């Protein structure tokens, strides 16, 4: 699971609503996965990122050199975009959990794939 | 509205399959490249010859880099219903437009294409000779000419009734071919990871084109299966997300769908499929998730949602939910009961899908999905609607004598506000939705009737 994905996921446990974001990340196996750098794509993602959640996740994974916020003129700043590219797309959580901050419910990540299925009782109507 | 006379006319030679899907594909692609569909031609129905006006050759070339419905495009220099009409039309084509491709330093060749008829070499040469009046100054080069000119003769569509003379003749400068070779190179037959309902390659590219997928988009498939639609989108440069409720499919585990193969191998998952085509960099993530209970946070971040939801026939329609939710009169599932999930009413599924699209698509983004239909009862009113989504196209593909599926394309034209979720309750449209609930029932009723009929006739 990439950190870009983590940034877009939220808990949908019954009654939790917007307080289900961001999910608390815990990782037991992480891999750095080189991905071809595409500055246009990274630049397009910057406005969609919830920065506080990204920094929290990056911190949990002990990542360094994570920009604290988008800088002015980021669209043309290759250094900035390369750092964001690495954080958003190249850090891959293979095993771990995502935890609902409100209910504590855990969603497992196995082989890089999060399992967001809830049991019958937990589902929101 | 007549197109500006500064626009050149082009002849599109269309492939003769997926007939209904062709016009929406061309329209969507022209719109993607800043053009629009402009033509003085009356109908496009079954004909493979389409004349349109396009603002620039660049747009025409971009169109061909995407289309799987069109074989080739030509800059149209003349046409008519007889050779005389063609020659007269050619004489009226502005010489200054011809000259750049005919000057003495250039090389060229002329090809004769006939449709629904075969000509002898002698007949072809006669036709080329008849064009001597054109101001060709360059040298003929049959192997690697700079410019290729084509004469296209239309002998109709009925192979049992071939006219003596062509119905239409066109002359044009060949510009580019379409992407029909993708159908073979991405064929499901060669793909590493397939499922029972993997989408035919040609249709998956058509869907991506209807959706106006472009490079650097984020495309999402909520019923991703083995990822065929993501492959097509990634081929066009989009980054892709997928979810599916089936754990084994998402992880690439369990029984294989290929004949003679028992279990899936390590190379069989969505990421591996993308890798097979050199598209791994476009893989974002896949998740095990229930499309009726999405885990995405509030916001608009999908550019296109392309999907083939389960119809409840070959793959079961499921969702997670509490036992209390089971309504009265739920139809019986032919498959054995799955403990955790209850049968997902098809109309709920489409309603959820449209709502999800309205919430998470960027403004101007598109939703492309298949809608199963019981043909004897189909009316246009049955197509699900949403106040935020405008219907762009609705194309039918027959599945059996009484069922078909329709490829629905919708575009988000209005920002989503919470109250939009409930508008459907106020509308008459809600009632026909019931038809989708019993699609599965009707599908099987057709099958059981036929089996009963066959048994009866074999007993007689």
From TrEMBL, chain A:
The text of the family note is: Belongs to the TRM112 family.
Signal peptide (from-to): none
- Kindly list the places in or outside the cell where this protein is found, as annotated in its UniProt entry: Cytoplasm, Perinuclear region; Nucleus, Nucleoplasm
Q: Which gene encodes it?
A: TRMT112
Q: By what name is this protein known?
A: Multifunctional methyltransferase subunit TRM112-like protein
Which keywords does the record carry?
Cytoplasm, Nucleus
Q: Carries keyword Cytoplasm?
A: yes
The domain of life for this entry's organism is Eukaryota
* Stored InterPro entries: Trm112, Trm112-like
The regions listed as transmembrane in this protein's record are none
| Keyword Transmembrane helix annotated | no
Q: Which SUPFAM superfamilies does the entry link to?
A: Trm112p-like (SSF158997)
Question: What is the organism field in this record?
Answer: Otolemur garnettii
Q: Name one GO molecular function term.
A: protein methyltransferase activity
Biological process (GO) annotations held by this record are:
positive regulation of rRNA processing; rRNA (guanine-N7)-methylation; transcription initiation-coupled chromatin remodeling; tRNA methylation
Coiled-coil annotated spans: none
Extract the PANTHER family matched here. MULTIFUNCTIONAL METHYLTRANSFERASE SUBUNIT TRM112-LIKE PROTEIN (PTHR12773:SF0), UPF0315 PROTEIN-RELATED (PTHR12773)
Main subcellular location of this protein, as a coarse class: cytoplasm
An example of a Gene Ontology cellular component annotation for this protein is: protein-containing complex
TrEMBL record, chain B:
Q: How does it assemble?
A: Part of the heterodimeric TRMT11-TRM112 methyltransferase complex; this complex forms an active tRNA methyltransferase, where TRMT112 acts as an activator of the catalytic subunit TRMT11.
This chain's function reads:
Catalytic subunit of the TRMT11-TRM112 methyltransferase complex, that specifically mediates the S-adenosyl-L-methionine-dependent N(2)-methylation of guanosine nucleotide at position 10 (m2G10) in tRNAs. This is one of the major tRNA (guanine-N(2))-methyltransferases.
Does the record carry Ribosomal protein as a key word?
no
Similarity section: Belongs to the class I-like SAM-binding methyltransferase superfamily. TRM11 methyltransferase family.
InterPro entries (UniProt xref): DNA_methylase_N6_adenine_CS, RlmKL-like_Mtase, SAM-dependent_MTases_sf, TRMT11, TRMT11_N
Q: Where in the cell is it found?
A: Cytoplasm
Question: Per the database record, which ranges form the Ribosomal RNA large subunit methyltransferase K/L-like methyltransferase domain?
Answer: 190-320
- Every copy of the tRNA (guanine(10)-N(2))-methyltransferase TRMT11 N-terminal domain together lies at 9-180
Q: Which GO terms describe its biological process?
A: methylation; tRNA processing
**PROSITE patterns associated with the record:** N6_MTASE (PS00092), SAM_MT_TRM11 (PS51627)
Reaction(s) the record says it catalyses: guanosine(10) in tRNA + S-adenosyl-L-methionine = N(2)-methylguanosine(10) in tRNA + S-adenosyl-L-homocysteine + H(+)
What is the protein named? tRNA (guanine(10)-N(2))-methyltransferase TRMT11
Keyword field contains Nuclease: no
Report the top EC class in one word. transferase
Q: Enumerate the Gene3D superfamilies for this protein.
A: Vaccinia Virus protein VP39
Example GO CC term: the record gives: tRNA (m2G10) methyltransferase complex
Q: What SUPFAM superfamilies does the record point to?
A: S-adenosyl-L-methionine-dependent methyltransferases (SSF53335)
Give the enzyme's EC designation: 2.1.1.214
Keyword terms of this UniProt record:
Cytoplasm, Methyltransferase, RNA-binding, S-adenosyl-L-methionine, Transferase, tRNA processing, tRNA-binding
Q: Name one GO molecular function term.
A: tRNA binding
